[in-house]
Structure formats: structure tokens, C-alpha cells
Amino acid sequence: MASILAVDDSASMRQMVSFTLKGAGYEVIEAADGVEALNIARSKGVNLVITDVNMPNMDGISLIKQLRMLPSYKFTPLLMLTTEASSEKKQQGRAAGATGWIVKPFNPDQLLNTVKKVLG
Amino acid sequence: MSIDMAQFHQVFFEESFEGLDVMESGLLSMDPGEVDDEAINAIFRAAHSIKGGSGTFGFNDVAGFTHVMETLLDEMRDGRRPVTHEAVEVLLRSVDVLREMLTATRDSDAMNEARIQAQQAELEALLAAAAGDVVESAQLDTAVEPETVKINGWHIVFRPHLHMMRTGNDPLRIIRELAGLGELQVEGDVSLLPRFSEFDPEECHLSWDLHLKSAVERSAIEDIFDWVEDDCDLAIMPIHDAVTTEVPPPPVAAPVALAEPAKERRQLQRRVPEDRRTQDRRAGGSTASSSIRVDIAKIDGLINRVGELVITQSMLSMLGEEFHLGQLDRLRDGLAQLDRHTRELQESVMQIRMLPISFTFSRFPRLVHDLSAKLGKKIELKMTGESTEVDKTVIEKIGDPLVHLVRNSLDHGIEMPEQRAAAGKPETGTVQLNAYHKGGNIVIEIKDDGQGLDRERILNKAMERGLVSEGDSLSDRQIHDLIFQPGFSTADQVSDVSGRGVGMDVVRRNINELGGSVEIESEAGQGSAIIIRLPLTLAILDGQTISVGRETYIIPLVSIIESIQVRQEMIRLVAGRGETFRLRDDYLPIIRLHEVFGIENPQASDLADGLLVVVEGEGKRFGILVDDLVGQQQVVIKSLEANYKKVDGVSGATILGDGSVALILDIPGIIRLAAQGAGLGDYRKTA
Amino acid sequence: MTHHEDEGEEYLTFRLGDESYGVDILKVQEIRGWEPVTRIPNAPVFVQGVLNLRGAIVPVFDLRQRLGMPSRGYDKETVVIVVRINESEAEKNIGVVVDAVSDVMRATIDDISKTPDFGARLSTDFMVGVATADDKMIMLLDVNRLQPPEAAGEAAEASVA
Questions:
Q1: pTM
Q2: Nearest C-alpha neighbor of B403 from the set B357, B368, B369, B448
Q3: Dihedral of CA B105/B107/B113/B118: which sign?
Q4: Which of B56, B135, B169 is opposite residue A106, by nearest beta carbon?
Q5: What integer is the mean pLDDT of C117-123?
Q6: How close B642 gets to chain C, by Cα (Å)?
Q7: Which domains does chain A have, with CATH numbers?
């Protein structure tokens, strides 16, 4: 099954995302910030990256920018977790190369639907 | 599928409370003059996390309230709002309210609605008053155009821009999604494909003409294109009955923006004030939790120790299988090894319960900040040794006594700025909180450079209360000790800050119950220092084993000053104090343990036959008469109350090497029993 | 341990002198022979002391004295019954010294007549009732009432302001 990289500095969010997606049969790798995520992405190919925006060390938007520079991630779906108030963040994300976004707060079903949609 | 989210709640609450601490300490150290970007970002992120998590887990009250805080912080970190002293104070108060909300949510308690709404109003007022952009977070749904004519389908023209795929969006995926809405006819248009030799496969030169036979809302289609709306040319036209609209030829360059940009759909989640009982519950300080976070390194160390122990054990067991006397040396070595490994394991395990004292110290910056403002004094708090590790139970129980002592320093110790200036001191007073390890104990000091203790006033107060008589001469130490007497307070007015002088004796008792001691040093005009000594661990005690008659008892080494052999000439009968013996310059009372405990047939009923163990408890010194000193050892403290009840004069029990039980003496308790007449003051001649 | 409505409950019976007593077997933790205990100072007279029960400190009461009967020397038949009692939602273990253990018997509600009033001879505060078996009268005790009456311990301290 496909592998997903979940990036969020909040452990409870990571756990929830991980649990939801693993339950649907996906392989999930977790990272707590952009730097960790980038290292993981470099060493292991994943099919999808879901990342929060506000994180220490490297935020989500920078992560997306960096990922897009890696040849193997040029077309990989990269999704941002954003809140409804930040249309500006969505713009920045898109400019950085994000595929799309999932609005917080979300429930597990929404997450699964979006992931299914994107991974085909 | 419904997944039970409750399993993640605990982690969420732990994280959120940590986040609140980050916010609070960040706000406290925020200097409106020079804002540190990283600092304010950290505060923002903490709020953001709490908001996101609480929303996900359905704690909408918390999410709504935090959202307002987050908005304020967002503006601050973007530079759209200045970081003012007022804003910091409002945010600090909001952190308090948020802490209460989280505690109430975690414990399924009612929330104080009035307080929450009041605080939120304060936040919102601040937001509204700012020069700058109005927060556009509460946007309503845009009204959908009333469609008076029946629509039975949509004609969609979709032309991705050249680089649309670089965002990881696959046009086919989008089309597939559309097909999920109903019957879809797809016509591809390859007319814009360049020559093969110039063809870049990473660019998208295709476009599609799509007919969707479905009466869905326009918004359903717009949602599908939400992510790519800026990266494509999109036209969505309704198909009415039999009329098919003319498709305008897609312009090559300029993007056609017929589709309305997907507006923010969600409203700011409004907290619906529910009809709850408004109980005023102040979320307490650090509540004792039943879980503990441990450094992985400690666990690894533990695993190693256990491993070594297992090896030693199996070596000994092999030895035991075919043992002969020639192997005695090996047996002895093996036992020595066992001893060492067991001790190391024990130390490792105790380390697990150790936490840095910063957990207790962390509340003081806020406390000093608030209290000095309230008192109108200028006070600076300095803390050292926050990483000093202490047993978890000590951390939980030392908090309240420390708070009381620090409050005292602030209230009665540090003078008003004018007074300090007049005395040639800097206007800002300093309170120091220090923690360090020393001699197998942890020492906590509270020092201030305030006015110190007033000898005269204390003496007078003590005389008023009959604790001290006119002619008594007391050392400084003894006078300072008077502070710890119940009901003793020389404060002229009872300030609501430190309460009515019921504090100090309770403070000392609490510290004693932890197996520790507290002393005061002071110099008038210069300041005071309160020194608390606590054992590193509560489960193990270094004790002196003694015997009286057939009974064996353990006296905590920390209470023992020394042991002496009594000679008749050292004894004196003092009126009103019974038997005393001379120790250097003092005459200390004698307690006959066999009388206090009703032990029959002690070996030594004549003082000269026994030994006197000189002990100190609650600032007083005594000599306890015992038959013999058996030895010193480390003992594991077992509770008497678990199955029985508290016994006066006994603090616990332990199991000796032979399996029998020995009681551990509670020195202050014994002193109290003796004072009640159970063994003090009766000078008995031997039969 | 099951007990059906019609079959009653099981009791461990034991002797104090000529008299037979019983306690609910569900409350019995274990039975041990008598061994020396560590004395507790200034304790009520029926409190013999404490012993080491696999690492826990358990008090031992002389049941005769607890019930107001004269004590008797201990011999090799003397037995300590360790029971589980409930004190304000906490579970505690205590040991009671009896002369000898007899049997496990089953008694239904019918068998248990209301506690006859013995007058001053025996305090009936401890009993839940009396059962009859083989012409013998068995006095059933409520273990929870065997704890010593609450002494005036340290008054609860007001927490530091």
C-alpha cells in the first residue's frame, strides 16, 4: 500500500493522523518538523506528504519548497494542514508548490477521503 | 467508520498544558521594546497547536477561545500589531482562563462561563481597537445566486496552465473526481501540443471539454477545482433543459475567471454558551498526575542494570547447583557482585522518579510578577539550579510550602521602593530561589535582600504569647526559630497575600513530613535566607538501628546529632524540665524511650547503663535513652497506614534482613509524646 | 467462589475456646501459623503488633481480646487469619489470632437467625448473625468492624495558604 509522511509538531495530531491512515492500510511515517521530514523524504520515497504549516526548525511551506526541489518529489502530492483563516498561507503554499490543503479541524473521514482522492 | 478519539486525549492535554507553559513563560519574558521574533513565534505556535488539536477532538469551546488568542498573536508576529504591555497582560490573563478551560474539559467539570466570556470580550476589544486590518476570519457564506431555471448539468472547460502538474496535481485525478458527481462526457483537446522535439513531458499542454449530467450545486464542482483554481483556466457553465450554452473559445493567454474563487466556507466557530452551572473553579497549580515522563536514557540504563543483575543471578544459581566448600571464595565474590548490582539497580530505579525541580520553580516568575505589581514593589526573581533533580512526590508536595515562603519574602521581606532607596539599597529588591545537591540531600534556598527579621519584635511577640519569659536569653537561631510557632506572625496587618500567620508552622510540618528540615538565617536590614533540606528520595532512609529491651527501632540518621555515653555527673534535674544532661554549653532534656513507648524490661533504666542518642526535631534537641546501638543501614520505608493507621512517634516501618519488622521513629512525634508527659520529667530511681 | 441465592454463602469457621465463629470466606486472604510480631507502642491491648506479609506491614489483633474475652497463650495450633477489610473505600489486610480453624461451611439466609442478645458477655457489635450447623451455634462476624475505633489522630492540617 502507499506510504504517507505525516509532519506536525503536535504529537496528538500526528498520532491521530497516523492512526487514521494506518487503519485504512497505508504505511505512515511521522516527523515533528520540516527538517526531520526532509531527511526522511530524502532517504525513503513516500507517495504523499501531509504537513502542518507552523512548526519549529522548518515550517511547512519551506518544507514544501525544499521537497519540490528533489527530483523524486517533483510531482508527489504535498498537502498542507491549514486553518480557515489563513488564505494567505494557502497562497504561499501554492506558490511553494503545494498540491492542496486540508482545513483544520478535520475529522478522520475527511482526511481519508482526501487521501484516497489524491492517491487514486 | 468511527474511530474512538479518546485514546489521544491524554496526550493532547499533556501537550496543551505544556504549550500553555511555553506561552506563559514566553509572555513573561517579552519585552515590548524589543520583540524577539522567535519568541513570539513560539507563543503563536503553541496557541495554534492547542487550537488545532482542540478543534479536531471536538473541544469547541477551547478551540473558539484559543482562536481569538491566536488571531491576536498572529497579528503581533506579522508586525501588524505592536506588542504592548497591555496586550501582554491581556494574553497572560487569557492563558489563565484557557488553562482553566482545559482543566475543566479534561476533568469533565463545568466551566466558568462568565469568566470565559469576560476574558474573550477583553481579547476581542483589543483586536477591534487595533489600527490595521480588521480580522476577516468571520466571513459568512457567500449567497449562492438564485437559480430560477432548472439546471440539469454543467459544461466545464478545464485548461491547466503549463506548470500545473508541478504542484503534484494530476488533471486526470481531477477529472476522475468530477466523474464521481455524475455522468461525465470528456473531450480532450490536444490542439496546443507542441512539436514532439520541443515537447516537455513535465508541462501540461492539454485541455478538456467536460459535460457533467448532474444537478449538483456549482459549489460542488468548484470544490473539486479548489486546489488548482490559480493554475488553470476554468469555465463552469450551467446547462439548462435543452439549451446548451455557447462555449466561448478559451483565450490563449489571459485566464478566464468565470468561476468564483472558493471563498472561506467556514465561519468562526461560535461557542454556544450552554446552560451550565457556573461554578467558580480555579484550576489549581500543577496537579499531581499519575503518569510521569522519563528520559529514554534512564530507561536504557535501567535495562542494562537488570541485565547485569540477571547475569550475576544465573552465575550464583549455577554455583549453587553443585556447591562445595572450595568454591566459597567464588560465592563470596558472587554475593559482592550481587550486592553491587542490586544497589545500582535501586539507584537507577529511583532516578526514574526524579524530575527537575523546574517543575516546581516554574510557577514563580508569574507569581513574583503578579504579586510585586499588586504590592507596588519592584522585585526581581533569580533562580538557579532548576535542573536539580528531586523525587516526584517531593516536587508535588514542596510546591505549596515554597509558595508560602516566597510570598512571605515578597510581602514582609522586601521593602517598598522608597524605603529601600532611603536605606541606600537599590529600588528593585531581589529574591533568589536556589536548588542544589549537597551531602545526599537536596537544598532549596529562598533568599531576599529585604529588611530581615526584627529580633526585638519577635522577642516581644513571643513574650506576649508566653513562649519566652522575661529573663531568657536566646541565641539568634532560637529567636528566628520562633517564627515557626503556630499562630505566630509579627505582621502588623494581616495582608491577604500571605495569610494570617497560620503558615509557618504548617510549612515546617509539611517539610518535616517529607523527611526534611527548614531553617532561617537573617540579618536585620540586610535580608533573610530560608534553607530547606530534603531527602533525595522518600522511599529509602539512612537509619541507625537501636535496641530497647527486646525491641529494635530505627532512628533516621538525618535527625541524629551524635550518640554519647552518659556519666552521672552530666545529669542535672532542672525545674520544670525534668532530667537534662549537659552537651557542651547546653542542658538538653532526656527522653526515656522505654517510658514513651511503654516497653517492658529495658536493659538500661539507669542512665549510666544506656546510651543517649542526641536528636533534633522541629528546632529542639533532646537525648533519647536507648539500650544499644545495633548498626547503621539503609532501609526501605514501608507504610504503617496502608493496613493499620498512623501511630504517634512512628513514621513508618521496614523489613530487616531476617524478615522481621522494625519501626522507624518519628523524632518530632516522640518529642511531642514525651512533652505530653509520657516520659519526660519523671526522674526515676532504679529499683 | 460462587454463591447462589438458594445455596447461601460460605464461611470459614474457627474456635475461640468452646465457641465457634465464622467469617465470610470471600474476605479471607490467607491462613498462617502464629509467629512473633513486632510490637506497636501505645496501641490498644488487643493489637499484638505487626508482621511482614510478603513485604507489606499487616497488623495482628488478638481476636479474643478484641471481642472482650480473656486472652490465652499461643501454641502450635494457634492460627492467624488474614482478612481483607474495607475502610472508607480503601482495602486493608489485617490478621486476627484465633485458637484454631475448623471448617468451611455453607449457610443460607434462613440459617442465620438474628443475633441473640448475649447481654454483657459478648459484644454483639461485631456480628452479622448466627448460623446453626450440626447443633453448633456459629457466630458470624463482620470483619470490617474488627478495626480499632478511630483514635483522635493528627487533625487534618489546613493546607498552606
A1: 0.51
A2: B368
A3: negative
A4: B56
A5: 53
A6: 7
A7: 3-119 (3.40.50.2300)
